């Protein structure tokens, strides 16, 4: 398999800085053609990984956002009932026999493809992102097992649809509940941590190109320090990028200069009220003052 | 380090060594199947082997399935594949985060190994093997009433001292929790009647009548049991009750899909996984490690603060019922308890507080802690007898 061989370089070419571990996991997932389950705190860039993979492979990204109560009709297929009813009505007084009518309204034309069916009916392997699988119910998880192992879907009226090209599947989980062992066993697994200093710096440079060199280091130092504080919700990578953009926009030259102004920008990094209260001006000054 | 050294220089041995490695993992509680074995063997034979650190990472991706396994894998890998002396010299040079010196293995993991050899022992809270005694799962059919009939259900658990009685009462507490789950799921199915039209089936039926949807087919709401979070007080003042209540909590944790169990004294400790552990000896070790300070003072407010801060976001939702099993003797401040209960209430639906002392005739809940907590409690009930434990079932059903 060549798809996975130079994945690290390809990811870099779309501006995604993968750490070595994650690159290994992606390479294995591509070469073994198995789903990859990514777990980790919110904001460590799990979803972004799938997007970057789609970019790197230059293929479509099909995203299925999971939520409680998600069922087969909204993930696999549904018939277009309105259209079917209209078709039935329109032919009410016509000469069309019931057989012909039935064949007609249960044809592909009346089928609404939902993400899972869509993903297996493409000619070119897409990246299928099943986001926050832990939010879905156990029943859906069980159904997913079937789709993920055979990559085929049976529609009673149409027959079985098998995949023309296996999608590259990435599942993400925030760990709100334990996933079943059966699902875990079908997937390759990777636990994603917050990026280390060097990687976060690289991400920052890649994503906020107009950021001054002298500012990038201190910003990453600050965020890395902040994550070590006792917070309800640790700032993720997206927050770092927001904050860097804010600092750029405000024309701040050195984050040590003006703790007051920096404290006001904390709303980019901290997303709960207790956290905002806990990180005072003094804390900001302390974090800004010391290198990581 | 060369690839050859990695497999001790003999390719023919790889399958044997791989099988051994998977056994090694399985013994440490990994879920590894036979197809994994074939896959790994193939993976190792496919091409020139990569450096050890990368190999370790690849096998990690292939063989782990959750965060716990992910964390422990590196050490297990080293312990099996790398001769100890070799690692020491390597460890000095390598900068790979994946290779660590096995001599620095932390105690938790070593305890697991040594304890398997020792068998049972230690003064950990007693945890019965699931399915030990009368078949527990079959007994799920033995419902609540039948479960209760078998023992002196009205005896205050404090007065149960005979070892046989203790064991029996513990078993009942465990079964009680499981029976509750059974009752609940049945009740839900018959009473929940929010119906939605099922368009797919309606249209299919309509075809038979020339497209006229005469009969509207409906769909019933799926029955979804409540989520449960239990907090068990294991401080000194609760010691007469905590061993029975622990069994009760274990029953809840094992039979409820969405449940989390915590014990607390001066700190809060998550015990869900330990209670669910199918290996009784290991479950005991894990609990013993966690319950250091079992029987000490109580800081309910601080423990709940830990929950609110670190777990609530992941665990609790609008269908969660929190059950606190405590006598309410708190060494922290009442204000903190009130604040944290208020915080907890924001994350959950109902708060049930079971207090063993409430069953005593002479007891009145007048301590400052209880007084400050009362406004936040939805259901305040005794928990000193098995019967009183069974009585909370309707509280769990109503949500």
Please tell me about this protein's structure.
Chain A is built from 15 helices and nine strands. With 292 residues, chain A is α/β, with parallel strands linked by helices. Chain A folds into three domains: 148 residues, Rossmann fold; 33 residues, no CATH class; 89 residues. In chain A, strands 2-5-8-1-9 form a five-stranded parallel beta sheet. A two-stranded antiparallel sheet of chain A has the order 3-4. Chain A has a two-stranded antiparallel sheet with strand order 6-7. In chain A, helix 1 packs across helix 3 and helix 10 packs across helix 11. Chain A is elongated, with a radius of gyration of 24 Å. The model of chain A has no long low-confidence stretch (mean pLDDT 86). Chain B has 399 residues and is an alpha/beta fold. Helices cover 51% and strands 10% of the residues of chain B. Chain B has 18 helices and eight strands. A six-stranded mixed beta sheet of chain B has the order 5-4-3-6-7-8, with helices on both faces. In chain B, strands 1-2 form a two-stranded antiparallel sheet. The longest helix of chain B has 29 residues. Chain B is globular, with a radius of gyration of 26 Å. The termini of chain B are far apart. At the A-B interface, helix 2, helix 5, helix 9 and strand 9 of A face helix 4, helix 5, helix 10 and helix 14 of B.
Main traits of this protein?
heterodimer; A: 292 residues; alpha/beta; Rossmann fold; 3 domains; five-stranded parallel β-sheet; two-stranded antiparallel sheet; 9 strands; B: 399 residues; six-stranded mixed β-sheet; disordered N terminus
The order of strands across the largest sheet of chain B is: 5-4-3-6-7-8
The ordered H/E elements of chain B are: HHHHHHHHHEHEEHEEHHHEHEHEHH
CATH structural class of the largest domain in chain B? Alpha Beta
Number of strands of chain A: 9
Secondary structure class of chain B reads alpha/beta
CATH topology of the largest domain in chain B: Rossmann fold
Shape, per Cα inertia axes of chain A: elongated
Please indicate the percent range of residues of chain A in DSSP E strands (runs of 2 or more).
5-15%
Q: What gap, in angstroms, lies between the N and C termini of chain A? A: 41 Å
CATH homologous group name of the largest domain in chain A: P-loop containing nucleotide triphosphate hydrolases
Helix content of chain A: 40-55%
